[in-house]
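[User] Could I get a sequence and structure tokens?

[Assistant]
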Amino acid sequence: MRIGVPKEIKVHEYRVGLVPAAVRELVDARHSVVVETDAGLGIGATDDDYELAGATILPAAENVFARADMIVKVKEPQPAECAQLRPKQLLFTYLHLAADPVQARGLCDSGATAIAYETITADDGSLPLLTPMSQVAGRMSIQAGAACLEKAAGGRGILLGGIPGVNPAKVVIIGGGVAGTAAAEIAVGMQADVTVLDISLSRLAELSDRFGNHIKTVYSTSESLRTLTEDADLVIGAVLIPGHAAPKVMTREMIGNMKSGSVVVDIAIDQGGCFETSVPTTHAEPTYVVDGVVHYCVANMPGAVPLTSSIALNCATLPFVKQLADLGWRQAIVANPHLKNGLTVHAGKVVHEGVAADLERAYRDGSFAKRVRVV
């Protein structure tokens, strides 16, 4: 199969779909790889590095899209990229389609087949291709929040960990999953006063066992959210429902009741955000203020640390890329039902039930998959 890697074009997105080491693995497996010139510069990988790995360098994205059978990216395709996709072509990337009807229309109009990283599952029910970026975003959320609490950034002027004689900042993390746990690790390490909320008692028990008395765990209700966030200096939104838009766990009223100069960081912004006041931002202009509260809602947080993020992502995606390339997507989703869970768009239709429900599009059962012949 011919695999294409275009350069990411989202604002301040420096990650790359395949690192040179991954290209070498695919070339050794007798696949061909075409890479847009300078696609890897954000991680310090030159065209020479890709050529040494066996890739062919093409001068522009349109050349990559025209020649590739499968496009491997990091971020969701932008409108100009959707326009270059074609029927019978496979797109393998993050989509976060449930909160993005414009992208959904573009992908459906292209006729291409799209498999989303974020809904591929593992035997234990986890999301192996979302996990590494959730870990990065969770850790970064505390770094970003700490910086936003500085006075020059519009914050209250609080040092996250305090010092002897001065209380640390109060950090409230909504959601105890992968991203929330990663955020708690860093917040604890920075000696903040940390509380984690979740609706799973078993998850709260796991977090309590893991962190001991370094954090407080609270069952999430409207009342506990309201009480804790009113007193918080930094709130991290780390709520996820796989394949669905994020629920709005904090209302505009709750935001308005927070202290002036406090900060909210919405890790769920890719899925529409979990605060009612959340609007996607970029690394170029990462924050805005609503009712005196600083909002950090960057939709590609891990793009700021592209070397770490690209390597981590490739470790997770490469086995699936190889399976898709070796078998073709139709046979691959039969051989691997976890991969089938990532199938989101095919032949002009949204075919993932959860995504379709959130987009209010007619959901068609994956009957086309039942017609696949394994040869």
User: Anything to note?
Assistant: Confidence is low (pLDDT under 50) at residues 361-375. The domain at 2-119+305-370 is CATH 3.40.50.720 (Rossmann fold). The CA atoms of residues 144 and 296 lie 8 Å apart.
